[in-house]
Structure formats: C-alpha cells, structure tokens
Amino acid sequence: MGPIVVINPNSTEAVTKAIDAALAPLRMAGGPELVCQTLAEGPPGVESQSDADSVIAPLCRSVAAQGNAASAFVIACFSDPGLHAARETTVRPVLGIAECGILTALTLGQRFGVISILKKSIPRHLRYYGAMGVGGRLAGDLPIGLGVTELGDADTTLARMTETGAELRDRHGADVLVLGCAGMARYRDRLQQALGVPVVEPTQAAVTMAIGRVRLGWGK
Q1: How do strand 34-38 and strand 94-96 relate by DSSP bridges?
Q2: Which position among 6, 50, 184, 189 has the lowest Cβ density within 10 Å, counted as fewest Cβ atoms?
Q3: How far is CA 58 from the centre of its chain?
C-alpha cells in the first residue's frame, strides 16, 4: 500500500509542518502512511485566483510523476486548485480539502460558517460553494485579515479566529465552522474549545476520506 500524499500547493514550509502535525490523530498502525509535501514552485500563499491558477500545472506534474507510487493524493489548499485537472493525471483518488471540509461540515450541522484569511479570498470561495450547490447551507464566510505567512503569530491568529468564529456563530447562525485555509490547522482544537461548536479542519477531513477510499478499495 502506497502512502497518501498530501500536497501543500504553496511554498511555505511552516504551513506544511502545521498540516503534518494536524494529521497525527489519523496515523495508525496498519493504516496508510501519510506523507506531506511542499510544492516548491508555488507562491508563499495561495491568496488570490491568480495564485490558485498558477499552481495548477506544477501540481499536476507532481501528481503525475508520483503516479501509482501513492494510494491517494490530497490537495491541501482551500481553493482546491487543479482538483479536476489532477484527477485526469492519475488513476488514484485525488481529494480537495475545501470540497471534503464542506461535505464533512454538512454532516455536523445545518448551517456552516467559514473562517477565511483575507477578504479577497471570499469571492473565490463563494464561486466554489455555488458550483458545489451548497449555498443554501452557508451561514457566512468572514475573513480574519491575515495572509498565509502571518498565521504563525499564534496569539494574534487565534484571537482573530475566535472573534470571527463567534460572529459566525452568534450573528450568522453557524452551528459548525470550517477553517478556510490549511495554514490554520494548528488552531482547530483550541478554537473548538473556545467556541463550543464543531470546527472542521479541512485537511483532516480530506485525509479521513482518503483513508476510507484506500481501505475500502474504492480506487479512483
């Protein structure tokens, strides 16, 4: 059984390390190995549509090059860049964290709220929710005003995430929250404790689905 390969499409190693640490609960004896990789050709953070578009070609090359050596691939960016193109390059399952995170949230509550990094990210997200047909279950998508590379400041990031999450819960009626950036992974547990509602870390959600796909032999 090959590993489940989790690809961070930005070039910030700290984000990849945070993703890797967040996957600790999903590593188990007899389960598939979970390998996290950084796309060196990517920008420091995927924060715009142009950023998302720019990583599609190198991301697809990476998936194609690893081919059947992996059991599955996870694209660890909330824009799910190149998801469908990557699926065309391999017979292995390819999962996007936004799609998986949202689908998981729909099983945990009636209305989901998304905590995003920047205001300019939200139109891109809204287009995706529309394409998924889940707009009627969306409570709101609000930014914390920090870029990907600024998420390492734990005190500031957690404070803004808590404030934004509380607004989504109290003013917008969200009963489940989704972290709208893979770089937020390290804050899930503390945020859930602070807000008292389920918080979905989308890379964890996607890897959980990937493990199921691999273990059940569902293939592509």
Answers
A1: unpaired
A2: 50
A3: 19
Q: Does 184 lie in the same domain as 106? A: yes
Domain count, the chain: 2
> So what's the pLDDT on residue 30?
87
How are beta strands 176-179 and 72-75 bridged, if at all?
A: unpaired
Are residue 104 and residue 168 in the same domain, yes or no? yes
84 domain-assigned: yes
Main-chain phi, psi angles of 198, to 5 degrees: -60, 135
Q: Does 220 fall in a domain? A: no
% of the chain beyond a pLDDT of 70: 99
User: What is the token pair recorded at 48?
Assistant: 């715009």
Same domain, 83 and 129: no
Q: What does the mean pLDDT of the chain come to?
A: 95
In a domain, 13, yes or no: yes
Q: Which domain holds residue 155?
A: 99-201
* Angle (deg, nearest 10), helices 97-106 and 122-132: 60
Decide if 182 is inside a domain.
yes
- pTM of the predicted model, to two decimals? 0.94
Contacts of residue 98, Cβ cutoff 8 Å, sequence gap at least 6: 77, 78, 79, 80, 125, 128, 202
Residues in the chain: 220
How far apart (Å, rounded) are the C-alpha atoms in residues 123 and 17? 28
DSSP string, 144-182: -S--GGGTT-HHHHHHHHHHHHHHHHHTS--SEEEESSG
Residue 58: name the closest of 42, 76, 80, 71 by CA: 42
